[in-house]
Design goal:
It is a single chain. The protein has one domain (1-79). It is 0% helix and 13% strand. The protein has a two-stranded antiparallel ribbon. β3 (45-47) and β4 (56-58) form a beta hairpin. It has 79 residues and is mainly beta.
Length: 79
Amino acid sequence: MEYTGDDGESGCNPGTWIWSNGDNSNYTNWASGYPQDTEGCTEAVIATLSANNGQWQNNIWADSEACFICQVYLPMRIV
């Protein structure tokens, strides 16, 4: 996910996150104390299953390559 820009290219709208395809994100799972540096327009989110119980962090490993956070639609199953 990334911050959405005020004009689509520059600036940011603090606290607003979008998926890489431009869709609004209406789910968050931030670790305690995160997100950090929201005024600086952070553009990356890190989520790991092994650390912080899968909760999200930002502003770490900024220069590292990592996998994507994927949004998946699950079929509804009535039991």
